[in-house]
Amino acid sequence: MPLQEHALLVDLFRASPRLAIDLLVALGIDATGPASLVESTFPVSAPDYHVDIAVTCGDAAAPSLVVLVEVQLDVDAGKRLSWPLYQAAARARWKCDACVLVVAADARVAAWAAEPVRLGPGGSVFRAVVIGPRDVPRVAPNDDATAEPGLALLSALAHGRDEPAAITAALTAASSLGDQRARAYFDLLRYKLGDALDRALEAMMATSEHPYLSDFARKYYDDGEAKGEAKGKRDALFTILAARGLAVTADERARIESCTEAPKLDRWIASAARATTLDEALAE
Questions:
Q1: Residue-wise pLDDT tens for the chain (284 aa)?
Q2: Which terminus of the chain is more solvent-facing, meaning fewer CB atoms within 10 Å of its CB: N or C?
Q3: Bridge partners (DSSP) listed for residue 65
Q4: What is the β-pairing status of strands 97-104 and 41-42?
């Protein structure tokens, strides 16, 4: 899920530019005023340089600060060559302070991103502003910050394995979103937190304290369980077909992979155990 994870985390900042400013404030950096998205491509040379998200702080026409957000899931030496350029280009374009805010996936990536980048002789260096898991503010279910789904989600990703309340806060915030985005946020939490999310969900569904939230959690939990069951059945079907020497064409493989109906998969598995041809095994 790395590509989807990167896209979803970038979407947090696109959906709420204020999130970048809130993270800077959490690091003790003075950043005040409204936040606005701006063009994030810098036409410096071919190819153009493109930062994940660019946010201005203050008056959009004459900002006091430009924040260039880079979501970093892993170490990438090439990024350390482009980050200084991002900052210099933004400072020249908007004629104000600028910083590169690296949102790191884990402590290892955060430590790498925080290392100074040597620009030349005489001690000239660049430093990114880095927020790793331990720097993300903790958001509790009753915090006002749950009104900001992006911050609540980052808090759960950073602290949810040890702090179930962070997961509850993230789900509380996500429950106010449209179904597509809520589904995406839930899938990201499940991908990153695994058993910790399952334990938090089981506790939530067992309580009547927040019935709406429990229903929200159950909807996606049950859906995830069903998808997991269907995948297991598809894997079993492929194993049986291979064991019986029944070659699966690309079209039939796509047909099986797209099937999420447990009864149909059960029927195919039973047929495959005695079929002599692929058509017999996958008969409707």
A1: 666 788 888 888 888 888 999 899 989 998 888 888 888 776 655 456 788 889 999 888 889 999 999 999 999 988 888 899 999 989 988 999 999 999 998 999 999 999 999 988 888 999 999 999 999 999 887 766 556 788 999 999 999 999 988 988 888 887 777 777 777 788 788 888 888 888 887 777 676 555 545 566 666 555 555 565 567 777 777 877 887 778 888 888 888 888 877 788 878 888 877 777 888 878 87
A2: C
A3: 57, 97
A4: unpaired
How does strand 97-104 pair with strand 129-131?
Answer: parallel
Phi and psi based region of residue 130 (left: phi greater than 0; alpha: psi -120 to 50; beta: remaining): beta
Q: What is the pTM of this model?
A: 0.71
- Alpha-carbon distance of 210 to 26, in angstroms, equals 29
Helices 195-205 and 164-174 pack at an angle, to 10 degrees, of 70
